[in-house]
Design brief:
Length: 169
């Protein structure tokens, strides 16, 4: 593979983002899982679970050509974890499955279209590599950022993600 390989680029980016995500998840105070900074916000437990479940969504982009949100037989994430240990175990399981699916793919497969839809309504349709980056990685990074705000509001030291955090200086 050449250095402009979408697979190599995604793999390198995934390794960095998974390590950063794990550092944040390790700090989630599950005893405060019901905490919400605002009535419209997800709870801390829901948000942390969503960040982990998005890993399965990225795997889906690699494994299938489409996902219909109205399909009752489509793969669904497991039940909401009840502890940090369960959350981290699911993170490890889903991370391993994602890495395995990416390793089994090739650059040509990553150019195939992936369609995310609700019945006949297309939500997004783009090459798999772009779907993984935009709907997968970027989406996960967005929610991980929200999770770090929850940690800050709960006075939990925030880990550094792309350098030291204010708590690590």
């Amino acid at each position: 593979m050449h250095t402009n390989s979408p697979k190599l680029n995604l793999t390198a980016e995934l390794d960095i983002e998974l390590a950063a995500t794990r550092r944040v998840l390790e700090r989630v105070p599950f005893e405060q899982a019901d905490y919400k900074p605002h009535p419209k916000s997800m709870s801390l437990g829901q948000l942390a679970t969503h960040v982990v479940n998005l890993l399965a969504f990225k795997t889906l982009f690699l494994t299938y050509d489409s996902r219909d949100f109205l399909d009752p037989t489509a793969p669904k994430p497991g039940p909401t974890p009840t502890s940090k240990e369960e959350l981290l175990a699911r993170f490890e399981e889903y991370s391993a499955a994602l890495r395995e699916a990416l390793a089994a793919s090739d650059d040509e497969q990553l150019t195939h279209e992936f369609r995310l839809h609700r019945g006949e309504h297309t939500i997004t349709q783009r090459p798999k590599a772009a779907a993984i980056r935009i709907m997968g990685l970027n989406h996960s990074i967005h929610h991980r950022g929200q999770l770090t705000v929850y940690l800050r509001l709960l006075d939990v030291p925030v880990p550094g993600l792309y350098g030291p955090s204010a708590d690590e200086k």
